[in-house]
Amino acid sequence: MGVYLQVENLTKSFGVNVLFEDISFGIDEGDKIGLIAKNGLGKSTLLGIIANDDQHDSGTITFRNDLRVGYLQQSPSFDPQLTVIDACLVGDSQRSRAVKAYEEALKSGNSEAMTAAIDEMDSAGAWDYETRFKQVLTQLKIDDINARIGTLSGGQVKRVALAKILIDEPQLLILDEPTNHLDIDMIEWLENFLSASHLTLLMVTHDRYFLDKICNKIFELDQQQLYTYDGNYDYYLQKRAERIEAQNAAVERARNLLRTELEWMRRQPQARMHKAQYRIDAFYDLQERAQRRHDSGDVELNVKSTYIGKKIFTAHHISKRFGDKVILKDLNYTFARYEKLGIVGDNGVGKSTFIKLLLGQLAPDEGRFEIGETVQFGYYSQDGIEFDESQRVIDAARDIAEYVYFDEKTHYTATQFLNLFLFSVKDQQKLIAKLSGGEKRRLYLATVLMRKPNFLILDEPTNDLDISTLEILEDYLAHFKGCVIIVSHDRFFMDRTVDHTFVFQGNGVVKDFPGNYSEYRAWKDYHDQLAAQETKAAAKPKEKQQYNVRDNSNKLTYKEKKELEQLTAEMEALNAEKEQLDALFASGETIDDVATRAARYEEVKALLDEKELRWLELSEKEGA
What is the pTM of this model? Predict the structure, then answer.
């Protein structure tokens, strides 16, 4: 594999704030790299520099000749008057002009224009390009290529930006927070696409499942340096902990030695006039190393909620629609004390609308919400940051409260409270305009919690937050003595924080599932597989091994009878999967993930053996 990119001694600073200094690294063909750092330490800046969208102070960046690079910005922007097709087919290449003319001719239905467009497509050799254009748009669920960018949601704009890049088939893909504003189905599609593709990848993302599944290498920006880990996110966590432990041990040794050298340096100048200069220079180097103890920035966010009573809220026959689009249809639900609810669903199905109905920002068409007297909402909106950017960070907090009292034992000054959210005293003096997007999100979260809510509603809280802040928030929510509703596309975050899930399925249908997102997805995949098998069996009956359950409840307990029924369904599903794998291995086709498939085949056989043994045991007991 060849080298795609080599970076040597790269340095970037803003005034006296050095983001990174003299960092060097390479990106080889086939690398899939995740870049990790706390907010404000230069992740997006580094990506922008590599993509030639930002300037660096010093250093060199060398690309392989003729390397095709695609760059997805964290917040893509287009002219709102552009159509989707114009945004995707930018540039003045003959292929782009030919495809645009062909699509316009298709839309117009003009036979003369169609003839001319077909001739131009032939001349430009653009048929493969047009096919890829259509395939990418279909995969990204972009249906209307003539829609104006200004009419699209944030998630749709993100998908258009992604389509624009993928259509041109880059060899190196640079992605800045690619999962922001995408719904879970789209995130999982992108995850599978990037995992299976041969693209070389450098990306910043807070989605830990996404990182773990895709990446084979992790870069970490920390203390102005870049550290490299040859493995996925789980491997990085292990090796990072070892690095920090070793680093802190080295610092402790340096501090012990420093005490001896300090005594030597404090002697009268005459006593060391003739000492070697190298020892004096070594002292100052040692002094610097002794001050480098790693501060992980991890804190315990011990912010208590105010008291909340037993009555939270009850939804009575809530219905809402916008024109022909049904958002909710006769929803009834009683929310329990200390409940932690996650809400998932495709973009546009009504998740945020449900929140606004609950908060009284929108009125339902029918029905009502009955809310308990002790409930104090704290609402973190995905588009709710409205700071005066000329203010300092500390002033934004003090506008809410100089002191935050939770009880007689727990109270904070505004400065102490901001410290809990990783804003040092120095950081608190910064103008809000100088903060990164993630730092503004972190400040917004702090201001929400300063109001001491006992019912937190978090609408896409993970967008733009770094992993360190997410871990703090997860720990806080796990111990929060109040109620929580979370709307999020971050599967890892949802799995860590919620105990059951509302799935907005569209057309006003809401499924209440008693578990987190991963548990729901496993349940859904299993039932989808069963449904597909039933459909296939109905369309084309064939002989297969049957597992009949005898109706003899006198011999089996009720629990055993249910277990036998469950085993029957599971073995049929496993047999169907085994048959599919047998057919795949016998087809002679190239299998990209043959090792994974082979491992799964052995796992399926082992599961079948185990379940058949138990099935026979129960069947013999039933027939005894």
Answer: 0.72
